[in-house]
## 1
Amino acid sequence: MKTCKKCGESKGLDAFSGARSECKACVAKYDAKYYAENPEKERARKAKYYAENPEKERARKAKYYAENPEKERARKAKWRAENPEKERAIQAKYRAENLEKVRARDAKYYAKYRAENPEKVRARDAKYRAENVEKERANYAKYYASMTDGYVAAKLGFPVKKVPPQLIELKREHLRLVRLLKEKTK
Amino acid sequence: MKTLNDVKEDMSALYEAVKNGEIDLKAAGELANITGKYLKAEQLILAREVFLNEANGARIQRPLLRQEADAH
């Protein structure tokens, strides 16, 4: 047992930090008051400490996140809801700096979503097509003119990976000829 | 027997001939039609191969592709 010099209460040793003569509760109260009265000083002190001890700070944060995942998720969600502009800027910056990573992540996510929600995806695609007829027509015209490997393989009824390149080449030549003949006999 | 590459080269030549008006359109149409049938047959072989590969991992030989592999 030890008596706190501030509040005068007798408490167990675990209520004290090391050799301090004030109990943890009194120290916390004092700190809170000091922080409230000197916010700028505190911010500067913390910033200096973080700059000087990045590793320690990272480890401390990681430990806190691991121990309080729910709290952290809620805090982040609240911040995002309160700062939509800042959040958008952060996302855009991350996307620009990690384009390949983001694309791969999105593709994986959409493939999973498509597999799990085929009806929803079909309905959404149909709605989009109905609302963007001209755009869709232009897109198809571009696709038709491109005669990419994917287009030619689709004409054969297979995904491009399954069709031997020689067959794609032959089909492309055939399509080119058929289109020319169609044009000439118009 | 012609390989896929041979037929492709024939198609390219035919395309050029049609473009330059060196061949009768009807005859060219017939040749394009025959190639279409040839492609259909290849498509069927491919479909069978894909089906068998997916069903039990077996791989059947495609005579035309084998000839091309031998030629190279």
## 2
Amino acid sequence: MIRIPESDRLFRFINYAFLCFILIIVLYPLVFVLSASVSDPALLLKGQVWLLPKGFNLDSYARVFRNKEILTGYLNTIKYTVVGTAINVLLTIMAAYPLSRKDFVGRGLLSAFMVFTMFFSGGLIPTFLLVRDLGLYNTMWALILPSAVSVWNITITRTFFQTSVPFEIQEAAMIDGCSNIGILVRIVMPLSLPIILVMIMFYSVGHWNSFFNALIYLTDRAKYPLQVILREILIQDNLSEMINVFDEGVIRQMLLAEGLKYAVVVVANLPVFLIYPFIQKYFSKGVTVGGLKG
Amino acid sequence: MKRTTVVVLVLLAVLAISASVAAADPDYLNKTGFPIVKSPITLTMVVGHSPGGSRDFNELLVYQEYEKMTGIKVEWTMIPLSVLTEKRNLLIVSGEYPDAFHSARFTEQDLMLYGSQGIFIPLNNLIDEYAPNLKKLLEEHPEIKRGLTMPDGNIYSFPLIYDPEFASVLAARKLWIKKDFMDALGMESIETLDDFYEYLKGVKNNDPNGNGIADEIPILVSSDSYLFDTLRGAFGLGNRGMAHQHVDVDPKTGELRFIPTSEEYKAFLQYLNKLYNEGLITQDMYTLSSAEITARARDGLLGAMITTNPRTGYGVEGYIGAPALEGPFGDKLYTYVNSPLVSVGAFVITDKNPHPEATVRWIDYFYSDEGAKLFFMGVEGITYTTLEDGSVDYTDLIYNNPNGMSFTEAVSSYVPYRNGGYPAIVKEAYFKGSEGQPDSIAATLPLVPYFPEEIWPPFSFTEAEMDVMSSIGADIDSYVQEMRAAFLTGNASFDDWDRYVSTLERMGVKQYMKAYQAAYERYLNQ
Amino acid sequence: MARRILRNWDLYLLILPVDFVIFHYYPMYGVQIAFKNFMPVRGISGSPWVGFRHFERFFNSYYFWRLLRNTLGIGVYELLVGFPFPIILALAINEVTNKRFQRFIQTVTYAPHFLSTVVLVGIVSMLLSYNNGVVNSLIELFGGERISFMTEPGWFKTIYVLSGVWKNMGWNSIVYLAALAGVDPELHEAAKVDGATQFQRIIHINLPSIIPTIVILLILNAGRVLSVGFEKVYLMQNSLNMEASDVIATHVYRTGLLGAQYSYAAAVGLFNSVINFIMLVAVNRIARRLNETSLW
């Protein structure tokens, strides 16, 4: 009979208390954002909205969705994200696995060089020239290929492979005549479901939120991703143009922009935000080493 | 006989030469009138567009109409303002730049750089031959011409000009006072800084709206720079206009004066500090966003504000324009006045352009009366109508748009001016923005006599001078801004004024002023 | 050794495309821009060489030390304070037995990551507002004096870092949670039999199993110490708190406004990268000496 030590109950209580505290701190501003997105902007600005919506209206959302380009924006972003992430994850695994192997000669050198590129790159101009020379300007690939791999993510994935997949198991498989790629697919990947899911999330969110590259490399409005459209809708507070055309329309818009900020945040992020809750259950469903031993 | 031959030969030679010079007008071009070209041509233009402006010039009514008039089709590429500088550079680096850049916000430095490399072509002769409207403007207002001319003597661009007669847009932001509060406090007028101080005190303490609560706010602005720029004229500061933040002319010596270390500036800061200490101005202006300030303004609780027009800007009525306030030394100057030359590099023609003459004619139209009307008001009968007294106003298509668009959205759907930074002249008759409103114009009238006698356009600096401006100048600018906020709020004590002055000197005010002096002398001699 | 290389030929094949992408897309010749007076017109190779002039200008700026102090200060503060939080959070969440509550907590804590910086700063300003902010009202309630959080330089770093922690701790904990998912439950069973308390189990089983991940992330984050981002600082900056809020990124932005300062920005960026890289190498070396996990 396994005894449950007394201190465990205390610990469990502290743990729950701590998490509840965190929950409240985090939850409050989130609820605020949701409330603000459906509140009267004038009240918002006067600081009269605290927790629950005041002056309930869906104007902000109406304003966002009135723009027909939102739909194409969403479709484009989904396309770029799915394709981009698939390529990203594939390449990341392909790079991380060799680097995780102790017996891979040159791994130190390669790792160092890759990390080096994280810090020193030519910047926008050479990359732009390259993209243009390759004929990728104004295409989806200009958004995907230059950022096809993130050394940061490769490093994390590699670390995961190293710690969660003991080398002995791989050696055993090698002795059994399994090829390296076979090991990767049949042993390492099943054990690495959690990190693969994490990579899918990291890369997806990265694609989902990107807008700068789109502005630089795309000229067709029809190809614009969601974030670009949303940013345009959100007229920035400082219309710092020399001619300030202030008039009733702009004031209404500026006020609307307050509520709009929050509506935009919700519309922009809801889909991507929902990925994780769906993925979560697979974290624990991943096979562990213990499971493999049998 | 021989002499006659010589004379005849010389005459023939002269004729031949002048004929070749006169035959400069290209064949494809009509020198005057519309269409501009004998058979249609196409030009490519890249335009910087701000989020409040039109989305696609290719579909814009005004430009479609203009194409019909001129025979010139323009293929527009829109670049969002947020990436304009990067994308501009990239286009030039990759060699993929268009025939012309429109509203691309090039600075004097850019113009010098690209002009000297030949990417932007010099326009002096072209303007002379084919741009009668701009040419007339430059002749009537030589200071604009001087500002437009680069140190190498060339003009590389068409500018954004505020009509020098359009006072209300030059002095875009004014001080407005709430009439009801003045009446409630028994003040007939506010003429001096002391009057202003008394007024603000009254608003704060004497409950002018009579509701028993001290909810009135004496004055609220969205940036402390508005405060500084509006009131500094009462100390005689900034007497050459807004294009020069830190430099003007000392009336006593006639030499250039570095404002931030002058005694008058110190007195000015002390005045503002007094206001702050009594709670008449608060640090809200540093922390509240302009949208939050808008919300407070709409409640009608502000005793004073600094804006283009309270009615159109915040939707509040009952504010009148304040006169030029007189300061303690007897100065009565309103210096929050922009130079008519607002933006130098609004339109440039590149060396890739096959038809520069036609392009010049194309853009010059917008500096004429008719062209300004087209640019700002649109097409008669569709977007605007002419009223009995000859003035023009938008139609219901704009004011009560059938598709539910707001005023600004409707304007941007047909007319290009909301993109900003454009090559054109802003005239009172055709500008319906808040500066063009009747109450703004009325509020500006009493200020005009107190405008600076001379308003300098921005100076153009040589590369060496630019180096100084962007290193020492940038640091000086940061320091001055930080310190004036510190003096105003009392975070820095006036006992430390000498230390402030010596820090500035250590930063290199001397070099800064030397560069300024050189640019100034060049300006005078042009 | 040659045998090992040959045996693993397929591994080299595997990593090839990635090398290709990296080498291709990180054209490093562009680094030269920092040493030249870049003129877009002439292209990179055509622009004149100016050596260290831009760097000198940066180092000679009146504000250089302040910029460095602020940027480094914020970066190190973030590392010291911000780094442990996600780890603690992950360990705590991992102990929750009720799956639904666990999912709820995870979802809620990772949500703030998706808020735009503009919204985040807006909320922070609102909560800390001198006049109507909740925090100040509470302070007054408990008999204290109101604090002008948003204008006092002394508070800047703290607000910046803590709001960042709030925003990202959930998101950053995900990696640790993934690592924790790989912990063999049999180890826990065995420990329980031995009478270990929950706390002891966490410290002796969970924590060690994620140490490699922690170390790697620590090294990587050390390599970001000077990279204090522009947007958030810019939004939180005002004339009154500049003493603490002026960082390298905002300084470059301001000088850039005066004209085409492409090379200057590139030079400052290079300086940033060099310092960051040195930090990374240093921490990596320490890590290598202390345990077996390191970047290379």
